[in-house]
Amino acid sequence: MSVSNAAVTGSTTVSPRAKKIVLPNLVSHCTYQLRFNRHRKQVTTETKKWLFKDGNLMGKKRDAYHGLKCGLLTSMCYPDAAYPQLRVTNDFLTYLFHLDNLSDDMDNSGTLTTADEVLNSLYHPHAWRSSARVGKMTRDYYKRLILTASPGAQQRFIETFDFFFQSVTQQALDRAAGVIPDLESYIALRRDTSGCKPCWALIEYACNLDIPDEVMDHPTIRNLGEAANDLVTWSNDIFSYNVEQSKGDTHNMIPVVMNQEGIDLQSAVDFVGDMCKQSIDRFDEERSRLPSWGPEIDRQVDIYVDGLANWIVGSLHWSFETERYFGKTGRQVKASRVVELLPLRA
């Protein structure tokens, strides 16, 4: 079933193609404090120079960067980071969006080639030699990151970025085959295609944390990371659905739910919205169950968990500020929650 097929719910026939959707009210469900990093403007300016160096990104791609407002996202998600750490983090997030845009147009071999370049640059930042732009960018930010990141944060960053490339390779295969996975398989894959897990390692880096591996591997810490990942990722599927459906892209939870549950578009949006709200509730429940590892580790864990909460609230508000999902109407959509669907592209 494609997203444009008719669905029958009870005795009401849904038209083959809906004209609009109503978004769930996720912002009101999230009560965490939204804060901004004081280095936002400086970091945004420096990252722009870094990204555009040597004539990289021209025309529409350069315009899209300005509309992305990645510096705002980084500022909201890492509000307490010092300038050097915020700069590396903003460089990475900007580069990650660039990779995401590239992977949307990649086949399996293109994804593998990019993954090989990026991962070799991470595992061998001082020894790997390549003229590829993506490799140069990778080595540049990672050499700065390892100056102060703890060994555990470095390892988690590389491992989870490796998982990201494995998952986008599978996504490319599914896209080529026209496969819409079942919900359980999609969730497992999406937790890695989101790119959130390396961003969680950057919380450790940005806040100068050195949390023991056994603490980071504790089930409650893992569950908190998963709940935050689910909220950021599934809400992103709702917010990005309009643009993706216009391109016929089905790597999104909404068509997955429509296909599996046999429900219409708005019902699927509501279904995913409820899952998002449940993920916030799950985060709060897990947070109330945090054990103690002693004063110093507890202090660092609290900062890390606050960092996950910053990502939850920051990503929700940023989604209506960036032009990536709603163009220049984001604030209007935030107020009305009504999205007029784009026509399918030729």
Automatic annotation (TrEMBL):
Kindly indicate whether the keyword Manganese belongs to this entry: no
> Which UniProt keywords are listed?
Lyase, Magnesium, Metal-binding
Q: Which domain of life is it from?
A: Eukaryota
Top class in the EC scheme:
lyase
A Pfam family (short name) is: Terpene_syn_C_2
One example GO MF annotation: terpene synthase activity
- Entry EC number(s): 4.2.3.-
> Is Protease among this UniProt entry's keywords?
no
**Family according to the record:** Belongs to the terpene synthase family.
PANTHER family the record matches: BETA-PINACENE SYNTHASE-RELATED, TERPENE SYNTHASE
What name appears for this protein in its UniProt entry? Terpene synthase
Name the species this protein comes from.
Pholiota conissans
